Amino acid sequence: MSANVGTKRAGGIGGLLDRPGFLASLFVSPAMLYMLLLLGVPFVGAIAFSMTDLNIGMLFNTMPSFVGLENFASLIDDPDFRQALRNTFVFAIGSQAVAIILGNILAQVLMAEFRFKPLFRVLVLLPWATPIALGVLGWKWMYDSIYSIINYNLRFLGLLTDGNWPIWLGNPDLAPIAIILVHAWKSFPFVGVIIVAANTSIPRNVIDAAKVDGAGFFRQLFKINLPIVLPIVTVGLVFGTVFAFTDMSVIWLLTRGGPMNVTHVLATLAFQNGILSGDIGRGSAISVFLVPILGVLVVMALRGIRREA
Amino acid sequence: MAHVRIEGVTKDFGEVKALRRVDLEIKDAEFLVLLGPSGCGKSTLMRIIVGLETATTGDVFIDDQRVNDLPPRDRNIAMVFQDYALYPHLKVYDNMAFPLRTKKVPKDQISKKIQEVARMFEIEALLDRKPRQLSGGQQQRVALARAVVRDPVIFLMDEPLSNLDAKLRAAARDELKRFQRDVGVTTVFVTHDQVEALGMGDRIAVMDVGSVCQIGTPEQVYSHPVNTFVATFLGTPPMNLVHCPEHILGFRPEHFQPKALFESGDDLADFQFRIHRVEYLGNERIVYGGLEGTFENMSGGELVMGSLPDSVAHARTLEDGKRYEFGVRREDLRFFDNDTEQAIESPSGGV
Amino acid sequence: MRRFEAFLKRTGLYTVVVALALFAAFPFYWMLMTTFKGNKDLYNPEVNPYAFNPSPDHPSPTMEHVDYLFNNTLFAQWLLNTFIIGVCVVIITLLLAVPAGYALSRLVGRGSDTMSIGIFLTYLVPPSLLFIPLSAVVSRLGLSDTYWALVVVYPTFTVPFCTWLMMGFFRSIPKGIEEAALVDGQTRLGAFTKVVLPLSISGMLTVIVFAFTLSMQEYVYALTFVSSIALKPMTLGVSTDLIRGDIFFWGSLMAGALIASVPVAIIYNMFLDRFLLGITGGAIKG
Fold first, then answer.
1. In this structure, is residue C277 part of a structural domain?
2. Within an 8 Å CB–CB cutoff, is residue B103 touching chain C?
3. Nearest to residue B297, comparing CAs of B253, B260, B255, B347?
4. What is the domain partition of chain A in residue ranges?
5. Counting C-beta atoms within 10 Å of the first and last residue's C-beta, which end of chain B has fewer, N or C?
6. Nearest beta carbon to residue B63 from set A2, A15, A18
7. Lowest-pLDDT range, A136-150, B82-96, C102-116, C153-167?
8. What CATH number does residue C263 fall under?
9. Any residues with CB less than 8 A from the CB of B95 and at least 6 apart, and which?
10. Closest approach of chain A CAs to the CA of B179, in angstroms?
11. Nearest-CA residue of chain C relative to A295?
């Protein structure tokens, strides 16, 4: 009796779909193409634009001219730009530092047992779980120059002397603090949650083995907890730091970079120049300054991942 | 009902040579066992037969038709996976119907066929259940049923019994073998369990590191192993191997008996054997010990094992630490080359 | 001494708990209060802000801000816009990320680690770097001042993570089941659609939720690409169009902000554990 084996030859559409390589490429290419076109190309575009004198009027009817590093030179001479560059670092590092501290405390709390813990969890995650623009609006109202509830509380607690009414967003010295506070507020829940998740991912039997081996609290912390926890936390932190360095929403909504350009960061300055004023070349140059920063963060992130691999 | 021919097949995964030159013929309606330790390539070979892998070189013929480039679905082969691979989201009925629906078999025929096969495997009551609601043994029967329902010309089974607990396994072995005999489908059965292989195979292909060492009936591979690997892989406890200056001497523990138990006319090789330990296993006793004195210029001190059934009264008198006279029938001795470890004829000249 | 120590620890813990909760949630509480306070009460620095202080012609609490929001502004339209954008982005994300996730999980054996890292890296290229060149792309495509620009651009931040989510998810489906389907007569495509996809509904649900909430929250691209009031998504509309000149309609602003935040917060809370599993589980198993 014949085997009745199919006599179809591999080939044609059916056969093509059978070759694993073909189907894989077919499945992956839409996503790759999309990311290339909408992420890769604009990324290269930003760098290219930064070296031209392109502005919005010229778009699609005149060719921009190559100006080399002129944009960059003029930026470095601009005190507003230098301020923005400083701010980018100060705000990001400041807010992340606060977020790490608060996040750690939060993590410790989340790993403890207490009443109403589920309610606490919901409340404490609100900054992370709500759209950033909307939460920031709430803060803007809280910082209002006349009706600030924060000031009201401070006065109520006796921490404000009479006649002293901080104008949070209008005072060049206070505005940065206000901004850092909001950034930290937004970031710390995620940091806390990541630390908890990382800690709970330590396999139980590893901890038990350490206990049996007689490891004390600190030894356990450094030799066991930290090496396992650190990579995951690093990844989480890198994301938070990227957000802090590149965020536009918080500052734009709170101060638009003011008062007097004092609170601009690279992202908001780029927006103001590149989109609002239409100076694409200059705006791109400003955002390009973000690239080396991101590069460093990427390296740190990769190290974090590799260490855990 | 098909015969399979594998000619010169090799398989490389990058640097790793999973199969080095396999030549094999599987007869129509035969139950062939691919036996070997993990990593020997038996599963790879089977996957090449079914079409889930393609051979790097060489050809696979099913009924004289070259099938190298045919995808699995065109080969009319059914496969039972080690973990059964039942579709978790489908009921048993739909699991069995799946291959038939794929082939666009008309609905009423599907229903008839499924009822028929379900009866054969006694799973009619399970048709409405989902795989996760079944026990291990039930899942295995469903996996088999799903394979059978397609009327394939070849069955491939990848260690289908290894997930069953020991009690079920013996019964399942029996059912499976009888079923195959009744239906008469060519079957290739992969296992690392040599007891299973000996018990079920019409022929056994013993594999190691990517090639077939020996292929033959259970008696052939057990009694006349072609090298030391086959010799020690089959049989529990494994064949004793004694290293002599000119060759390796082999004899099975069940052939290694106290001299007193042999008949006077037997042509024996004599050994002085000091027992270190007697192990009682219920149906048999294993004696561990060392050979003393000389036999064929060997220096002595080699550790060997003997196995005596409990039914032998003399076995109960053996004690630790004592020296006894043991023997092996010369016809039961096997010899292997010292360097190649291949079987050789009994050496000429003076034994 | 032990009991006292324990008591101190307990008090300390609860103090921290309350402090953190206050810090995190107070803005929302204040937003809530503001939503329902009549203007006379709201803009009166003399009275106690934590209480409702009605006056004869101005009730407090009041629904006037919410009313205003729904009847005198395009808030409802903004919500609709956000919804439409969200749905479209989800569809695009599914179409791109599910097959890609499958391909990366199954058919490309090695190099999948490189892929994961690649995916991770795309998140380090932020909108504030891309929005300038993207605005050129958007103009070119004739999508300026439409919300379709957002539909086109938002998948840049949903697709990578969702691909990665699906990758991990597909990996958990045993290869044997797919192979059984192949042996049972399916093509690879058939095995994918008939066996793998039905088993991945849970993963796809996570993708849907994640993509939808991400696109609901976005602000920067919206700000860059959309200027017509009627076309704005809710995050943008609430922050820019509840202002006349430089007078902020705080009551309605807070109402809008709160209403727009609630659905996202609820969804995030429901799915928090899943997201975390996706992030850390993927990181651990690599």
1. yes
2. yes
3. B347
4. 12-49, 70-308
5. C
6. A2
7. C102-116
8. 1.10.3720.10
9. B86, B87, B131, B142, B146
10. 20
11. C124
